[in-house]
Amino acid sequence: MNIALWIVAGLMAAGFLFAGANKLLTSYEKLAQTPGAGWANDFSPAFVKLLGAFEVLGAVGLILPGVLNIVPVLVPIAAVGLGVIQVGAAITELRRGEAAHAVINLVYIAAAVFVAWGRFSGVPFG
Fold it and tell me: Which tens digits make up the pLDDT trace of 91-102?
């Protein structure tokens, strides 16, 4: 179970690190024109950058506390936070009529629930 939790957390971390860095490093105008990122037009540039920062922090929170064994309870908390972000993303995409994109969010939500459940239930990290 521990290995499965690490794999899922690692895949989530990679995905959120990439997505968050993209939001932080790409200009708002360019991001809003990217195919599949039309949702950015519904939010302010500051919100999009803040969202990117939260995604990067969440990605770090999924891995570092467990690896370093420093406040490991932050791992499931990060998973819950990223899951909440994905619930918001799914709602936004459903409102925009982009149901196909919302399926990806549901996969991330399921992964976040799995990691949060596994780590809150006390599965040891090592």
Answer: 999 999 999 889
